[in-house]
Amino acid sequence: MIDLSKDDGLWVATINRPDKANSLTRTMLSDLADIAEAAAGDARVLVLTGGGGRVFSAGADLDEARAGLATDPVWERLSGALAAAPCLTIAALNGTLAGGAFGMALACDLRIAVPKAKFFYPVMKLGFLPQPSDPARLAALVGPARAKMILMAGEKIEGPPEALAWGGLVDRLVADEDLMQASLDLSADARGGATAAHVAGGIKGLVPMVTG
Prior knowledge:
Blueprint: E1 2-7, E2 10-15, H1 26-42, E3 45-50, E4 55-57, H2 62-66, H3 74-84, E5 88-93, E6 96-98, H4 102-107, E7 110-113, E8 119-120, H5 123-126, H6 134-142, H7 144-151, H8 160-165, E9 172-173, H9 179-186, H10 196-206
Parallel strand pairs: 2-3, 3-5, 4-6, 5-7, 6-8, 7-9
Antiparallel strand pairs: 1-2
Helix pairs in contact: 1-3, 6-7
């Protein structure tokens, strides 16, 4: 349920469970973490997106969440691998981003989204804590008060224009049909040569990052 394509240093990992709103099982999260860790060796760009056209990911599969997935360390393994990857990482948000799926998007270098995307992280309502690294990463992007509005007050951001206004939660708004091309355009320099991954890793080391 995770599809991976590779083309000359560009890796695209697609969450492909549209019949379940691309909700994530432990196996899917482990597969994504494997990809993020492997990208450190071979990829110059890693793009994460969702299949089906409506939802990037609804977060944890609810049955597995109730059975323990909500507190499984695999979430932190995935977000940590994305944050540490020396390549450029892009979350291409083809639709709504919800719950634990926030973690992987927050850990990416860039987030681009289509107009229909919505953003919410209903941890209080569901009785779960957010993943350990998510509050700090979210606060670094939108500020402490807005992070609390999302995590504690259950505020739903109704679209990328609002997300853009809130700060760095979304870096660019694009039309649905332009999402992957926008990802390619943003990654052009990082894909440009054999030294690109080394340079990208060096830049990421210079820019302040929230890694935990």
